[in-house]
Amino acid sequence: MKLGRLNHIGVATPSIEASIAFYRDVMGATKIHAPFDLPSQGVKVCFVDTPGENGTNGTQIELIEPLGETSNIRGFIEKNPQGGQHHMCYEVPDIHAAKAEFEAMGKRVLGEPRIGAHGTLIFFLHPKDMGGILTEIMETPKDAH
Predict the structure, then answer these.
(1) What b/e readout covers 99-137, taking b as 16+ CB neighbours within 10 angstroms?
(2) Distance between CA 76 and CA 64 in Å, rounded?
(3) pLDDT tens column, 45-80
(4) Contacts 24+ apart (CB under 8 A), 54-59
(5) CA 17 to each of CA 53, 69, 76, 105, 108: distance values in angstroms, whole numbers, following the listed order
(6) Which of 31, 52, 55, 119 qualifies as a FRET site for 106, CA 20 to 30 Å off?
(7) C-alpha angle 5-63-141 in degrees, rounded to nearest 5
(8) 23, 101, 22: which is closest to 59 by C-alpha?
(9) Is residue 1 part of a domain?
(10) Shortest CA distance to 7 belongs to which of 143, 140, 127?
(11) Dihedral sign computed on CA atoms, order 94, 144, 31, 53
């Protein structure tokens, strides 16, 4: 498996509004996308762009706040009341080929590929199989970058 570009770092937060203020006022972020609900994932999401080279976009920060009592990240916030790094997301050109490769290596895929916050197919890999990091794999559109 060839490592793809780091697309974003997921940061769980008890308050997207407070996190937006932090990234804007402390970290100097100038491009903060409008928050939106992603009920299928049980989260409210907000992307913060970091600057890349020559005016391009760098890696994004994906702020995720629990949405509803059954949110998958509610337990994370209970253990980490201030929030913190939740996952790292890497790009691949073919999600199904990537899933098959990870499974062939004995890595635990958490669920089937599904539509993620960017509107493309994603899946997650168990942190115990990925150096202690919950890892998201995201298919990128052919015309991306």
Answers:
(1) beebeeeebebeeebeebbbebbbbbbeeebbeeebbbb
(2) 11
(3) 999 998 777 766 778 999 999 998 899 899 999 999
(4) 57/31, 59/6, 59/7, 59/8, 59/9
(5) 28, 19, 18, 40, 34
(6) 119
(7) 35
(8) 23
(9) no
(10) 140
(11) positive
Both tokens of 115, joined, read 């539509």
Q: Alpha-carbon distance 7 to 60, whole Å?
A: 6
Q: What does the pLDDT look like over 106-143, one tens digit per residue?
A: 999 999 999 999 999 999 999 999 999 999 999 996 65
Tokens, residue 118 = 């960017």
Structure tokens belonging to residue 15 = 């308050």
Residue 144 lies in a domain: no
- For the annotated catalytic residues, the residue numbers are 136
Residue reference for tokens 């150096």? 131
Domain that holds residue 85: 6-139
User: Which CATH number do you get for residue 72?
Assistant: 3.10.180.10
Place of tokens 């706040």: 65
| Residue 145 belongs to some domain of the structure | no
